[in-house]
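Entry 14. Structure prediction run on the chain below.
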Amino acid sequence: MASNLFKAAAVAGVALLATGHAQATEGPHVGPIKEYVNANVMSWLSDPAVVSAIKAQNDKTAGMSAAQIEEMDQKWRAETGASDRPMIEGILANDLSAFLKDKKNAAAGMITEMFVMDAKGLNVGQSDVTSDYWQGDEAKWQKTYKVGPNAIFVDEIEKDESTQTLQSQVSVSITDESGAPIGAITLGINVDAL
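Output returned:
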């Protein structure tokens, strides 16, 4: 009987983690960030500008190998310190990036950055330049897209040296019209402004 109770508790724990609604240790910032995202972000994650851009990139990147992804990520990283940045500028100039910049500006300082990732964890659009192109090896993608629909992952608070503000990244899975996960978004949240 104790064994069955243990199994039931373990299954329930896995279910909680799989839904993205529970994390091992949640700081006091997690609840307010989730509330902010639910009230101000979730409604536009299904916008055609977001969904169509991710789907189009998923079509292009579906057959990419790990070596190709690594090559693109290295190219991106090299461009972050260069004056000639065709790969970065191509992403920053696309329609999804313009959409994200508008949403960031409308957030009046609450959102410090935003970027959308595809089914491989590759950048699709962004409000600001990221340090790398591939996010697939990071919790922001693994704890959202790989978990499934409605997954939300709130990371620890860190101090942004450039703005001297406390920030936390929150990541959310993005689904298509059928409810299937197609990618994810990460937002930097100004914790001082919460």
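Residues 169 and 188 are 4 Å apart (CA to CA).
Filed with the rest of this week's runs.
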